[in-house]
Design brief:
It is globular, with a radius of gyration of 24 Å. The chain has 14 helices and 23 strands. A seven-stranded mixed sheet has the order 15-17-18-13-12-19-20, with helices on both faces. A five-stranded parallel sheet has the order 9-8-7-10-11, with helices on both faces. A three-stranded antiparallel sheet has the order 5-6-23. Strand 12, helix 9 and strand 13 form a beta-alpha-beta unit. Helices cover about 35% and strands about 20% of the residues. By secondary structure, the chain is α/β, with parallel strands linked by helices. Helix 2 packs antiparallel against helix 4, helix 3 runs antiparallel to helix 6 and helix 9 crosses helix 10. It comes from Polaromonas hydrogenivorans. InterPro entries: Ald_DH/histidinol_DH, Ald_DH_C, Ald_DH_N, Aldehyde_DH_dom. Pfam families: Aldedh.
Amino acid sequence: MTELLSNYLVGRWQAGTGAGTALFDPVLGTELVRVDATGLDLAAGFDFAREQGGTALRALTYRERAALLSAALKVLQANRDAYYEIATANSGTVKNDSAVDIDGGLFTLGTYARMGDALGERRFMLDGDMARLGKDPLFQSQHVLTSTHGVALFINAFNFPAWGLWEKAAPALLSGVPVIIKPATATAWLTQRMVRDVVEAGIFPPGALSVVCGSSAGLMDQLQPFDVVSFTGSAETAAVIRSHPAVVQRSVRVNIEADSLNSALLLPGEAAGSPAFELLVKEVAREMTVKSGQKCTAIRRVFVPEALYTSVAEALSARLAKTTVGNPRNDTVRMGALVSRSQLAAVRDGLAHLTAQAEILHDGSRHALVDADAALACCVGPTLLGTRDASGSDGADRIHDTEVFGPVATLLPYRDTAHALALVRRGQGSLVTSLYGSDAAALASAALELADSHGRVHVISPDVGALQTGHGNVMPQSLHGGPGRAGGGEELGGLRALNFYHRRSAVQASTDVLAHLRTPSAV
């Protein structure tokens, strides 16, 4: 029988009492490890994190907490090769795709370590300037941000077991808030291994960092008024979290990142083969194939002028045809597997749903698998769909309402800029949209028109074609999240991420008292 991974709770490693759920290699079909959380004393674990971990973290300054993040980064960097091996086996990703997750997570952790160091020897943050409350300036108000005296529960998605861990944990720990991580079961191995390496290095105070693998049953029940919960996953699960008594009755703060029908838009005025045209084709193909399209930020809908529909379809299909699919251990393979058999079935069902309203422009099922058995491997080639009837009211409503979480995108034509912007907004809010063109004024105007319905607007013009960080790459300096169906949440965005883990309060006092707040060493 394979190894049963331990959970880390109440400051010690402990195995669940059940047989466990098996994790599989999505290419070879072999069982890797098992996870189980049966029998854990969750109440004790949450109390320990709040009382021991939280108290110890809050006693440190931002700079001291940043030093802990830096120390954790060094440990993770030293074990990087092992993480790549786990990602290949458990997520079925090629090396470049594993880097998006693993190195992306380490980069984010390092970024927050540097930001925290710059905050200095403080334990709270000022929010704005003092405000006079009357004619006499002696009595004023100063808003402050202080760490919440609770625990942060993270319920993460299967597609980013490394980055999903550290993009949440880094700002929480820097804020002085202990974290309990519940990774998605299918890929929990990498998250558990990273936590294990950091815990065994003895970097953080006991209770500051915990991990629970297996079922999430009972976790939400433990949350108290000053705790926070951050969730990444399906809209259905998000609805369950939002309706939980911890949120409804105890006002637990919640952050949600859910489904997202992200778009790419080529603005009018471009010709086939122009630099902006080529940038769109390259970026869409990349977003369809990186991590086999299993990214919450991947491009799902591609909008182009009606006159360029055929040209874009041909150019995209030609690029996708060069994508080799199969066993990520083979150096010739450029796209690995979906994460599980259930995910493969979901992608196939989603394709069947969309093709009722769209034609197949490039058929991923025709890609021969490299060094992989089609009967076992959870592999599917990139599939480009298309329809010339792009308006939701005219027969393409499924395209604007259904996300297939895999290497699938749909090409859609538009009549003019107003029509294009209206079609993009049919996604009802998303994490990111990317704009392509060479007219700076038109790009800026479109970016502002779409900003209210997107967490991030990624503008790619020829002058930054070689510099831009990628439609789907989430940089810690920029906001990650989105309104509407994307969940309405916000993460990252530099130091803005710390706001979720702090409480804002107005201190009304004499200018002498407030002067002490503005001089931390005096507090």
